[in-house]
Amino acid sequence: MTGKKYIVVAGWGAYPRLLIEGAKKAGVERIDCVAIKGSTDRATWKAADNVHWITLGGIADGIRWCGANGYDGAFLAGQVNPLSLFRGRFDAEVKQWLAELSVKNAHTIFGKLSEKFADVGVPILPASCFMDDWMPGAGLLTERAPTEAEASDIAHAAEVARDVGHHDVGQTVVVKSGMVLAVEAFEGTNAAIKRGGKLGGKGSIVFKAARVGHDMRFDIPVVGLKTLKMMKKVGVTALAFQAGRLVLLDRAEVIRYANVHGIAIVGVDSGLPAAPLRPSA
After folding, report:
1. Which of 95, 184, 258, 266 stands 20 to 30 A from 250 (CA)?
2. Contact assessment for residue 82 and residue 184, using Cβ atoms and an 8 Å cutoff
3. Please, which residues have CB within 8 angstroms of residue 245's CB and are 6 or more apart in sequence?
């Protein structure tokens, strides 16, 4: 990767920092950061070679800045509060972009941003790139395996997740005893788990999935320690995900926490392609 110059548009959380560190580990010559005021962690922009600050509402200017500085590609990583899409103080240009979308979800919104980056000559690359250490494959990660009942619910949840994925509804499904307790909408993973877990209580399972044909440039499923803590709080006892298609943040801490509290974590072979770990040549 010597000679390449990339930039990460960083939301909050550890994800963008891990991507930056992974790129450096892989030999990327220079990786910079577009930091969003009020969102991007200090550790993230400190890890980058250079930083350029923007407001969320001024993303259009940030895109033009990336184009003017000749990057070979950009990554969209980290979280942005969904409510900011409704309450953010966007400039007129960004408001027009959003108004052009008849359907608003992660794929349409980030897809529009990707178009705008492409217009200035900076392609959006898969956000899975350089995340080698954080995208687990198939198999059991914890000391405890799912029980027979949990395994049955995991299989059912995988089918439900695949079906709802066609409609870009969400990535998280909560199931117990064959009953679908919650499907993630715009509220996010932890809120969906809280809602489903309160209905099902102890013995509920969570399945996290990327849809068939998921655009791995953005909105890749992510699980971290906060997710496990929410599961413990509401009695969810197993977490399953599509192998090679999910970012597991805080990996060591997550597995340690799960083992302490008897939560099973397993990667399931979905038959779908794994997310790419390097930009295409």
Report:
1. 184
2. no
3. 135, 209, 210, 214, 220, 221, 270, 272, 274, 275
